[in-house]
Heme response regulator HssR (Bacillus thermotolerans), 222 residues
Amino acid sequence: MRTILVVDDDLHILELVRLHLVAWRYKVLTASSGEAALRLADHSVDLAIVDVMMPGVDGFQLTARLKEEWDMPVLMLTAKGELEDKREGFMSGVDDYVVKPFEPEELLFRVQAILRRYDKPTESKIEVGDLEIDRQTLQVVKGKQKLMLPLKEFELLAILASRPGQVFERRYLMEQVWGLDYENDDTLNTHMKRIRERLSALQASVHIHTARGVGYWLKEEK
Protein backbone atom coordinates (compact mmCIF):
# COMPACT_ATOMS: atom_id res chain seq x y z
CA MET A 1 0.00 0.00 0.00
CA ARG A 2 1.37 3.43 -0.98
CA THR A 3 1.89 6.05 1.73
CA ILE A 4 0.96 9.69 1.09
CA LEU A 5 1.86 12.60 3.36
CA VAL A 6 -0.71 15.43 3.33
CA VAL A 7 0.39 18.81 4.68
CA ASP A 8 -2.07 21.68 5.23
CA ASP A 9 -2.72 24.06 8.12
CA ASP A 10 -6.44 24.08 7.22
CA LEU A 11 -7.68 21.10 9.25
CA HIS A 12 -10.90 20.86 7.23
CA ILE A 13 -8.98 20.47 3.96
CA LEU A 14 -6.53 18.12 5.66
CA GLU A 15 -9.32 15.79 6.75
CA LEU A 16 -11.15 16.03 3.41
CA VAL A 17 -8.07 15.00 1.45
CA ARG A 18 -7.28 12.26 3.97
CA LEU A 19 -10.75 10.74 3.67
CA HIS A 20 -10.59 10.64 -0.13
CA LEU A 21 -7.12 9.08 -0.16
CA VAL A 22 -8.13 6.43 2.39
CA ALA A 23 -11.18 5.62 0.24
CA TRP A 24 -8.79 5.09 -2.67
CA ARG A 25 -6.79 2.61 -0.56
CA TYR A 26 -3.78 4.77 0.29
CA LYS A 27 -2.13 4.93 3.68
CA VAL A 28 -2.20 8.57 4.79
CA LEU A 29 -0.02 10.59 7.14
CA THR A 30 -1.11 14.14 7.98
CA ALA A 31 0.72 17.21 9.20
CA SER A 32 -0.58 20.73 9.85
CA SER A 33 2.81 22.43 9.47
CA GLY A 34 5.97 22.16 7.44
CA GLU A 35 7.97 21.34 10.55
CA ALA A 36 5.67 18.43 11.44
CA ALA A 37 5.85 17.18 7.85
CA LEU A 38 9.65 17.04 7.97
CA ARG A 39 9.44 14.86 11.07
CA LEU A 40 7.18 12.40 9.21
CA ALA A 41 9.12 12.33 5.94
CA ASP A 42 11.27 9.39 7.06
CA HIS A 43 8.23 7.10 7.29
CA SER A 44 8.64 5.56 3.79
CA VAL A 45 6.48 8.23 2.16
CA ASP A 46 5.76 7.71 -1.55
CA LEU A 47 4.26 11.15 -2.27
CA ALA A 48 3.58 14.43 -0.46
CA ILE A 49 0.57 16.69 -1.07
CA VAL A 50 1.55 20.14 0.16
CA ASP A 51 -0.24 23.45 0.76
CA VAL A 52 1.67 26.71 0.17
CA MET A 53 0.43 29.17 2.76
CA MET A 54 1.55 27.79 6.11
CA PRO A 55 3.23 29.52 9.06
CA GLY A 56 6.91 28.79 9.60
CA VAL A 57 8.15 26.53 6.82
CA ASP A 58 5.86 27.32 3.87
CA GLY A 59 4.98 24.97 1.03
CA PHE A 60 7.73 26.18 -1.30
CA GLN A 61 10.40 25.73 1.37
CA LEU A 62 8.99 22.36 2.39
CA THR A 63 8.98 21.12 -1.20
CA ALA A 64 12.62 22.09 -1.66
CA ARG A 65 13.57 20.19 1.53
CA LEU A 66 11.56 17.09 0.59
CA LYS A 67 13.19 17.04 -2.83
CA GLU A 68 16.71 17.67 -1.59
CA GLU A 69 16.72 15.27 1.36
CA TRP A 70 14.34 12.49 0.25
CA ASP A 71 13.90 12.97 -3.52
CA MET A 72 10.18 12.75 -2.78
CA PRO A 73 7.51 13.46 -5.42
CA VAL A 74 5.36 16.44 -4.43
CA LEU A 75 1.93 17.62 -5.54
CA MET A 76 1.14 21.18 -4.51
CA LEU A 77 -2.52 21.70 -3.51
CA THR A 78 -3.18 25.37 -2.86
CA ALA A 79 -5.52 28.33 -3.27
CA LYS A 80 -2.65 30.32 -4.82
CA GLY A 81 -3.46 29.96 -8.49
CA GLU A 82 -1.67 32.90 -10.09
CA LEU A 83 0.91 32.16 -12.77
CA GLU A 84 3.71 33.55 -10.59
CA ASP A 85 2.71 31.21 -7.75
CA LYS A 86 2.79 28.24 -10.12
CA ARG A 87 6.17 29.31 -11.44
CA GLU A 88 7.56 29.47 -7.90
CA GLY A 89 6.05 26.08 -7.13
CA PHE A 90 7.64 24.39 -10.12
CA MET A 91 10.93 26.17 -9.45
CA SER A 92 10.90 24.68 -5.94
CA GLY A 93 10.57 21.22 -7.51
CA VAL A 94 6.87 20.25 -7.42
CA ASP A 95 5.77 17.52 -9.82
CA ASP A 96 2.24 18.86 -10.25
CA TYR A 97 0.10 21.79 -9.11
CA VAL A 98 -3.62 21.69 -8.25
CA VAL A 99 -5.59 24.81 -7.33
CA LYS A 100 -8.30 24.80 -4.65
CA PRO A 101 -11.21 24.24 -4.86
CA PHE A 102 -10.50 20.91 -6.54
CA GLU A 103 -12.37 17.88 -7.84
CA PRO A 104 -11.46 14.79 -5.78
CA GLU A 105 -11.27 12.57 -8.87
CA GLU A 106 -8.86 14.98 -10.55
CA LEU A 107 -6.66 14.78 -7.48
CA LEU A 108 -6.71 10.97 -7.78
CA PHE A 109 -5.75 11.11 -11.47
CA ARG A 110 -2.82 13.39 -10.73
CA VAL A 111 -1.63 11.36 -7.73
CA GLN A 112 -1.66 8.18 -9.82
CA ALA A 113 0.14 9.89 -12.70
CA ILE A 114 2.96 11.10 -10.43
CA LEU A 115 3.34 7.70 -8.76
CA ARG A 116 3.55 6.00 -12.15
CA ARG A 117 6.41 8.28 -13.17
CA TYR A 118 8.31 7.31 -10.03
CA ASP A 119 7.57 3.59 -10.28
CA LYS A 120 10.53 1.23 -10.31
CA PRO A 121 11.13 -0.89 -13.44
CA THR A 122 8.51 -3.62 -13.80
CA GLU A 123 9.57 -6.99 -12.42
CA SER A 124 9.08 -10.01 -14.66
CA LYS A 125 7.30 -11.95 -11.90
CA ILE A 126 4.76 -10.68 -9.40
CA GLU A 127 3.88 -12.67 -6.30
CA VAL A 128 0.62 -11.82 -4.57
CA GLY A 129 -1.16 -14.13 -2.15
CA ASP A 130 -0.78 -17.69 -3.41
CA LEU A 131 -0.35 -16.59 -7.03
CA GLU A 132 2.70 -15.96 -9.17
CA ILE A 133 2.09 -13.81 -12.24
CA ASP A 134 4.80 -14.26 -14.86
CA ARG A 135 5.00 -11.42 -17.37
CA GLN A 136 7.42 -13.33 -19.61
CA THR A 137 5.36 -16.49 -20.06
CA LEU A 138 1.99 -14.73 -19.53
CA GLN A 139 1.05 -17.43 -17.04
CA VAL A 140 -0.72 -17.26 -13.70
CA VAL A 141 0.64 -19.99 -11.42
CA LYS A 142 -0.81 -21.39 -8.20
CA GLY A 143 1.23 -24.27 -6.86
CA LYS A 144 1.26 -26.87 -9.63
CA GLN A 145 -1.63 -25.25 -11.49
CA LYS A 146 -0.84 -23.01 -14.45
CA LEU A 147 -3.36 -20.79 -16.16
CA MET A 148 -3.00 -19.01 -19.50
CA LEU A 149 -5.21 -15.93 -19.64
CA PRO A 150 -6.19 -14.02 -22.77
CA LEU A 151 -3.74 -11.14 -23.18
CA LYS A 152 -6.06 -8.31 -22.11
CA GLU A 153 -7.17 -10.18 -19.00
CA PHE A 154 -3.55 -10.95 -18.13
CA GLU A 155 -2.55 -7.30 -18.50
CA LEU A 156 -5.39 -6.14 -16.26
CA LEU A 157 -4.56 -8.70 -13.57
CA ALA A 158 -0.85 -7.84 -13.71
CA ILE A 159 -1.60 -4.14 -13.22
CA LEU A 160 -3.82 -4.80 -10.19
CA ALA A 161 -1.30 -7.27 -8.73
CA SER A 162 1.56 -4.79 -9.10
CA ARG A 163 0.09 -2.74 -6.24
CA PRO A 164 -2.19 -4.88 -4.02
CA GLY A 165 -4.59 -2.72 -2.06
CA GLN A 166 -4.33 0.28 -4.39
CA VAL A 167 -7.38 1.40 -6.35
CA PHE A 168 -6.70 1.71 -10.08
CA GLU A 169 -9.06 4.17 -11.74
CA ARG A 170 -11.17 2.80 -14.60
CA ARG A 171 -9.89 5.28 -17.17
CA TYR A 172 -6.29 4.43 -16.29
CA LEU A 173 -6.90 0.70 -16.75
CA MET A 174 -8.62 1.26 -20.09
CA GLU A 175 -5.82 3.48 -21.38
CA GLN A 176 -3.09 1.08 -20.23
CA VAL A 177 -4.66 -2.01 -21.77
CA TRP A 178 -6.59 -0.72 -24.78
CA GLY A 179 -4.72 2.51 -25.50
CA LEU A 180 -5.96 6.07 -25.78
CA ASP A 181 -8.80 5.08 -28.12
CA TYR A 182 -10.26 2.75 -25.52
CA GLU A 183 -13.59 1.02 -25.83
CA ASN A 184 -16.64 1.59 -23.63
CA ASP A 185 -16.88 0.72 -19.95
CA ASP A 186 -18.79 -2.50 -20.66
CA THR A 187 -15.59 -3.96 -22.13
CA LEU A 188 -13.72 -3.44 -18.86
CA ASN A 189 -16.63 -4.78 -16.79
CA THR A 190 -16.76 -7.95 -18.92
CA HIS A 191 -13.04 -8.59 -18.63
CA MET A 192 -13.05 -8.07 -14.86
CA LYS A 193 -15.96 -10.49 -14.52
CA ARG A 194 -14.02 -13.14 -16.45
CA ILE A 195 -10.87 -12.62 -14.38
CA ARG A 196 -12.90 -13.01 -11.18
CA GLU A 197 -14.37 -16.27 -12.48
CA ARG A 198 -10.91 -17.61 -13.34
CA LEU A 199 -9.49 -16.68 -9.93
CA SER A 200 -12.48 -18.33 -8.27
CA ALA A 201 -11.93 -21.52 -10.30
CA LEU A 202 -8.31 -21.55 -9.15
CA GLN A 203 -9.49 -21.01 -5.56
CA ALA A 204 -6.94 -18.21 -5.37
CA SER A 205 -6.46 -16.31 -2.12
CA VAL A 206 -6.69 -12.96 -3.94
CA HIS A 207 -9.89 -11.30 -5.06
CA ILE A 208 -10.75 -8.29 -7.19
CA HIS A 209 -12.82 -5.63 -5.44
CA THR A 210 -14.77 -2.75 -6.96
CA ALA A 211 -14.39 0.82 -5.72
CA ARG A 212 -17.80 1.98 -6.90
CA GLY A 213 -17.60 4.80 -9.40
CA VAL A 214 -13.79 4.82 -9.29
CA GLY A 215 -12.12 1.56 -10.30
CA TYR A 216 -10.78 -1.78 -9.08
CA TRP A 217 -8.28 -3.12 -6.57
CA LEU A 218 -6.81 -6.49 -5.64
CA LYS A 219 -6.75 -7.88 -2.11
CA GLU A 220 -5.52 -11.09 -0.52
CA GLU A 221 -8.24 -12.71 1.58
CA LYS A 222 -6.53 -14.55 4.45
Observations:
- The radius of gyration is 19 Å.
